[in-house]
Every structure is written in structure tokens, then in C-alpha cells.
Design goal:
Elements (H helix, E strand, L loop, with lengths): L2 E8 L11 H14 L3 E9 L8 H11 L5 E4 L2 H4 L3 H12 L3 E4 L4 E2 L3 H34 L12 E4 L2 E4 L1 H15 L4 H10 L12 H8 L1
Length: about 220
């Protein structure tokens, strides 16, 4: 007989979502367990939103699987587990390749080939969604770079971010011009550092420019 742990959740915003109050969920899980001859070893009841999977009750229920206390996790609907397709896909990869996931509402039972197929489709959709998001972000970053817009990180010496746009910093550009001039004359990096210090030029941190920083400027 399959040992199952029931996971029951209501949101913090609504203690009794339509059709998924605590009592209603438990009653549905109990009826499902009787119908399919499941041994309910425990119930985990949680009041929390489904914005992420870092929830005490959910982790307890999943821990029941990995500790060997239960073979399956049962929920009234998949959205009690998570509302994120991405998070569902991650849980499939980490837990439900090995342990069973049972959903009363969607009639998902990964102990069967059909149930595994449905969950694999959901996991594939999750992977597709992650890749699509990545492609969108990459395209947006390329566009921003092409338009001279700031895309995050510390601006290179000689530039500054103004209203989300990467612009030249006149003072730092003057230092870069001097570095190029001194290098063209054959001065060493240490001599250039000394020459800049003599003129009062400093780093963004207000310290004398180190020769290693000057090497990056001259690259």
C-alpha cells in the first residue's frame, strides 16, 4: 500500500479560498485516499502564500518523502503546492522523479504512465518558460547596450550612469587621455601613476591611482 502525506494550504490573504478551505481540502484528500487505497501517514497543514517554495509546511511534507516516512505527496490541486510552473518543474526534477505526486483536482497520479506524462509535459513547459525568459532578457540587454543604456554593474572608468544611460565622464576621460599620451611617450605604468598623482588625479575612492588600474585604462 502506498504511504501518502497530505499537504493542505490556504493563503494568508484568504483563509477559505473557494472550495479549498482547510476542512474541504482534508475531506477531499481523505475521500481520494479511501478510493485509491492509500495509507495516509500524516497531514501537513499550512497557512501561507504560494509565492515561493520556501515554506515550512511544504518543506516538512517534502522531507517526509526523502526521509522514507511516505512514498507519495497528495494535494487537492497543484496550485496548493505552487502557482509557479517554474517552481513545479524544479520540484519535479528534485522530488517527483523518484516519489509520487498525486493531485485530486487534476487527476494526476505519477505512479501511472499517464500521470508521469502529464507531469513531464508540465516540467517541459517549465523549462521552455525559463529558456524563453532568458532569451527575452538577453535580447533586452543587447538592445540596451546598442542604445548606450546602462545594463547593470559598475561603469568602466571614464563613464557614468545618468538616468539609466551610459555617458562619458569628462573628468575621467581627461585622465584616460593623459594615460594614452604618457604611454605614447614610453613612460612606464609606475611613472604614469606618479605623474597623475603629482597633478592631483585620484581614483573614484579618492586614493592615488595604482599602476595596475592604469594598466587597465591603457589596455
Amino acid at each position: 500500500m502506498t504511504r501518502a502525506i497530505g499537504y493542505i494550504r490556504v493563503s494568508t490573504e484568504k483563509q477559505a479560498d473557494q472550495g479549498v478551505s482547510l476542512d474541504a481540502q482534508k475531506a477531499k484528500i481523505e475521500a481520494y485516499a479511501m478510493l485509491y487505497d492509500l495509507d495516509m501517514v500524516d497531514y501537513v497543514i499550512e497557512t501561507a502564500s504560494a509565492k515561493n517554495t520556501n515554506r515550512e509546511g511544504l518543506q516538512e511534507a517534502l522531507g517526509a518523502l526523502t526521509s522514507g516516512r511516505a512514498d507519495a505527496l497528495i494535494v487537492v490541486k497543484l496550485d496548493r503546492l505552487t502557482r509557479s510552473v517554474v517552481d513545479l518543474g524544479l520540484m519535479v526534477e528534485k522530488y517527483f522523479r523518484k516519489y509520487a505526486l498525486l493531485s485530486v483536482g487534476e487527476q494526476i497520479d505519477t505512479r501511472s504512465a499517464g500521470g508521469r506524462l502529464v507531469l513531464n509535459v508540465l516540467a517541459s513547459v517549465s523549462e521552455w518558460e525559463r529558456e524563453t525568459i532568458g532569451e527575452r532578457i538577453s535580447a533586452a540587454m543587447q538592445y540596451m547596450k546598442a542604445e548606450g543604456m546602462y545594463t547593470g554593474g559598475k561603469p568602466l572608468y571614464g563613464f557614468q550612469v545618468v538616468n539609466g544611460e551610459m555617458l562619458e565622464n569628462d573628468g575621467e576621460q581627461a585622465v584616460l587621455a593623459l594615460v594614452r599620451k604618457y604611454r605614447a611617450k614610453g613612460l612606464s605604468l609606475r611613472k604614469i601613476a606618479q605623474a597623475l598623482a603629482d597633478k592631483g588625479f585620484k581614483s573614484r575612492a579618492g586614493k592615488p591611482l595604482h599602476f595596475q588600474a592604469i594598466a587597465r585604462m591603457a589596455a
